Every structure is written in C-alpha cells, then in structure tokens.
Amino acid sequence: MTVRIVDLSLEIYHDAPNFAWDPKCAVIVHNTVASIGYNMTQLSMATHQGTHLDAPFHFLDDGKTVDQLDLQQCVGQAILVDLTHKKPKEPIEIKDFEPYADRIVEGSKVIYRTDWFKQLPGRHYFSDFPYMTIELARWLAERKIGLIGMDVPTPNPTDYDPVHKVLLGAEIVIVEGLANLGDIGTDTFFFSAAPLKIRGRDGAPIRAYAMVGL
C-alpha cells in the first residue's frame, strides 16, 4: 500500500503575516556554525501564528488548555467539505454542510476547504474570507463533533467571540490556517493536527498533514 503525505501547513518565517493585534513573528539567528560551531535560531511568535490549533481556554477561562487535550481528538480520520465556490465575505451556512450530514456525527473531524490561503500574504487574508455563521457553529456543536478545521485564519472575522465560544464551549478543537487542501484529492483522509504541548495555555502551532491511502 502506498501512502501519500500532503503538507497542510503554512510556513513560519521572520515577519510572517498575522492579525494586527497578535505578537509579531520573529525568526532570528542566535548562533551560527561560524560563530560557535552550530546553527541555533530564536523563535518568537503567537500561539496562534499560521497553522495552529485553538484549545477551549483560548476563549474560556475554565476551558481545557492545549496540554490537556486528548490527542485522539486531534489525529484520525477526517472528512473534507468542499466550499471552493464560496466568494469573499460570503457566509458559510448549515445548508453548505447538509450534504455531508450523515458523516458529521459525534467525534467527527471535519475540515472545510475554500482555498483562501492563496490570498496570503495580502492583508485581506485576515478580513475578507468566507465566514462561518453562528447558526452553523451551533449546528456543529449540537452534533458534538470533535474537531473543525479550515483554510482561513479564523471562523468569523467579526462575530469571532460568539462563534469561538459556541465551538470551544462544546469542546470542539478548532484548527485554523490550513493550506493545500486541494492536493488531498479525496473527501476522506487521515488527518494530523497534534499541537505543541504548551503547559496551561490557549493554543499552539501545528504541522498539519494528511495521509491519503492509509
């Protein structure tokens, strides 16, 4: 059996774009082979830089922190919802997910594709993307899915507080900033979004990838 791995992650690099109110991404040379005999880099960035994962603590003080997440919730079989027909600033609604409803059940890992990552590094990447409605967030929460992933920087750029609280309040892991979902080539695949084990905090960068043919 041949297994194909598809990298679904954005690159991390010095001054990589992020939300205006987030810490700036800094990738700084600390040591070099010439100076000390080996290369070493200092990395400073937000826990929500690029391709990353939100734990419930991100919006809920009593929510699980990233180190408390069950990795079973972050890794496993996933389904891909194709929303590439969506236009900038167009709502993503319950009706867009209904064709997949029989597979969106308790514990499901659901990823949706808009191809919006191609708008990087434009600043409009952070504001003009197709957005999840509050009603859809509630529908997903009622179905008790385990994870929702997306190739946009956040589910909703204006109603981000209620949408996050609905999803994270239902202990749904949110994976944001995915890329290359069109390279998967199937709507069912093995997905990995294991986060860095940062004690007591709200989220973490991930190296997300798909395994096709597993």
UniProtKB/TrEMBL annotation:
Keywords in alphabetical order: Hydrolase
Keyword Ligase among UniProt keywords: no
Cited InterPro entries: KFase/CYL, KFase_sf
GO molecular function: hydrolase activity
Keyword Hydrolase: yes
Catalytic class of the enzyme: hydrolase
UniProt EC number: 3.5.-.-
Protein name per UniProt: Cyclase family protein
